[in-house]
């Protein structure tokens, strides 16, 4: 398969004419637009019960029908979609900004020579609309995450088993770090609510994080482990695993064990070399980290500056 989608069409594998080159650019442009709209925004709008504020390609009747019909469907991957949306939000916004510079708003999609009325990708560009809709999705997911704390309090008052389970896991993790004399992590429950944890990470000596103090909030759902924790680094940190909104990208060895989550959070912060494309959630930091030697030096400088600011932030 070619990275150029145009060349993946039968009979166009070796297309090189001037017309083909123009169509290649137009084809890639509309695929990028429609991928964000159809693969990212619409499924999450359906899951979150958000009705699109306007349509781009379908008729009003088709759009309303799609949203209403999908509203009652249970998406097995709903939590995964939400979590990864937060991870890659900055990447989506970067694609939208690039698209706005390259195409004309309301400009019609170019029909390709291999498309026909019964099998074509028709419509028009409207990146401002995508920007508004994607921000609505983000706000809804953040609001849902913050709401877990209140739902957790209610579950605690009702003596739900998940509340006691999380509290026991917390106590075991604290005891583990105490026994291992690990002084890089300080963990406590916020306001006696086992659905909100505060993790303070102290940068390990002789690393790029040396001297940093990072405050991290771990939001847990009453539906844990079906809904996985959402972890936000509240202190300034220029890191390719930390999105601009502070969401941390990490992968626990076991999704139902909070000890594995805490260990994975620390490992993600300290990681410096293994390449995993899933973890590149900060476009600028990623470009520097995996770029030239000079780019890597710039990354290290920015990281160290954020480490210094984190200590100031902690004592402010």
TrEMBL record:
Q: Which domain of life is it from?
A: Eukaryota
Species annotation = Aspergillus chevalieri (Eurotium chevalieri)
Q: What is this protein called?
A: UBC core domain-containing protein
Which residue ranges does UniProt annotate as crossing the membrane? Answer: none
InterPro entries associated with the record: Ub_conjugating_enzyme, UBC, UBQ-conjugating_enzyme/RWD
Tell me the organism's taxonomic lineage.
Answer: Eukaryota, Fungi, Dikarya, Ascomycota, Pezizomycotina
A Pfam family reported for this protein in Swiss-Prot or TrEMBL:
UQ_con
Q: Does the keyword Cell wall biogenesis/degradation apply?
A: no
Q: Is this entry keyworded Iron?
A: no
> Which UniProt key words apply to this protein?
Ubl conjugation pathway
User: Locate the UBC core domain: which residues?
Assistant: 161-316
């Amino acid at each position: 398969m070619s990275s150029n989608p145009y060349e993946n069409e039968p009979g166009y594998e070796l297309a090189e004419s001037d017309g083909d080159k123009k169509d290649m650019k137009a084809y890639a442009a509309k695929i990028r637009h429609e991928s964000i709209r159809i693969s990212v925004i619409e499924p999450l709008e359906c899951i979150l019960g958000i009705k699109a504020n306007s349509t781009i390609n379908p008729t009003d009747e088709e759009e309303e029908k799609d949203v209403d019909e999908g509203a009652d469907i249970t998406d097995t991957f709903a939590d995964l979609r939400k979590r990864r949306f937060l991870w890659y939000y900055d990447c989506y916004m970067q694609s939208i900004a690039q698209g706005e510079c390259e195409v004309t708003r309301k400009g019609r999609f170019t029909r390709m020579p291999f498309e026909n009325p019964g099998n074509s990708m028709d419509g028009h560009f409207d990146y401002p609309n995508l920007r508004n809709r994607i921000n609505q999705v983000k706000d809804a997911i953040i609001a849902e995450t913050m709401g877990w704390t209140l739902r957790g309090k209610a579950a605690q008052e009702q003596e739900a088993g998940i509340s006691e389970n999380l509290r026991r896991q917390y106590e075991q993790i604290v005891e583990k770090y105490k026994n291992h004399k690990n002084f890089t992590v300080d963990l406590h429950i916020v306001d006696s609510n086992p659905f909100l944890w505060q993790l303070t990470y102290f940068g390990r000596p002789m690393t790029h994080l040396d001297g940093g103090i990072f405050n991290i909030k771990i939001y847990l759902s009453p539906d844990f482990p079906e809904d996985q924790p959402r972890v936000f680094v509240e202190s300034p940190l220029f890191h390719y695993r930390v999105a601009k909104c502070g969401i941390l990208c990490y992968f626990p060895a076991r999704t139902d064990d909070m000890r594995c989550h805490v260990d994975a959070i620390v490992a993600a912060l300290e990681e410096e070399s293994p390449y995993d494309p899933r973890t590149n959630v900060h476009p600028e930091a990623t470009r520097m980290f995996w770029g030239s030697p000079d780019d890597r030096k710039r990354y290290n400088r920015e990281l160290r500056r954020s480490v210094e600011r984190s200590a100031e932030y902690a004592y402010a």
